[in-house]
Specification:
The complex is a heterodimer.
Chain A (H helix, E strand, L loop, with lengths): L6 E6 L5 H15 L3 H22 L7 E9 L7 E8 L23 H8 L2 E6 L5 E8 L8 H4 L16
Antiparallel strand pairs in A: 1-2, 2-3, 3-5, 4-5
Chain B lengths: L7 E7 L2 E10 L4 H13 L4 E12 L1 H17 L2 E5 L3 H9 L7 E3 L2 H6 L5
Parallel strand pairs in B: 2-3, 3-4, 4-5
Antiparallel strand pairs in B: 1-2
Helix pairs in contact in B: 1-2
Chain lengths: ~170, ~120
Amino acid sequence: MSDKPDLRVELVSNPQYLSGVREMVSQVSRRLGFSDLQCSQLALAVDEALANVMKHGYDRQPDGRIWLDLTPLPDNGHGVGVKIVIEDEAKQIDPLLIKGRDLEDIRPGGLGVHIIREVMDYAVYEKRGDKGMRLTMMKRQASPPKPGSQACADPGERRGAGDAHGGS
Amino acid sequence: MAAREPISVRLEQREGAAIVSVGGEIGYQEAPALRNWIRQAYDKKPEKLVIDLAGVSYMATPGLATLVEALQIAKKTRARLVLCGLNDRVRAVFEIARLDTVFVLAPNIEQALETKNES
């Protein structure tokens, strides 16, 4: 089996492309066998992740590069799945500093990572070599129980000192 | 060529309430337009603001953030904010963010207008 994704999209960090990408993710997910609600959730997670890169990674500069890879996962007893990897060349941040905010604190912003964590079975941020970040997300039709927070590596918000990549 | 308005919005007043009816997808790019319309609605100093989301097919966290801002303005101005018309997908986003219990939600505009004004 090739380690190359079935589908790769390259886009610039311009929000005008968000709606097209989430529509594509939703449609592809539907073809893979996900329910309508799951397709919507997958599109939402990708949308939140991309918006986070555009807003915080590239500081709203519209000419940064972003890559989205999508690979179907065969049925492992929890249904078929999908692996989505989002990479950028934006500023790096220590993944351990990535945090979501307390939901008890009702205020605008900072919800993006919480959404990603809730709708995906797996979501991990890591540095991408010496330039940019990589977010790897996976979801299956029948989501298995989530591993402990450590194993899930808390995808958190792309937030560091000074809220560099934070919020949504 | 001018960019297309990212969302459709209709603003009306009825029974002392301002009603903002929204259509389209509310993501990162569209949320600022919604914010502007909500501020216009508050400028009319309504006792109640109803935001009808029946035409909203998609909501991401920038949309939620805009609505939380609207709630904060409502508290400052002692207005009543009611959201209505959420479809299942939009409601699911509220639930994931645990905001479904923070807002007053109604099935439709008529029932939103009937909710009592005291918070």
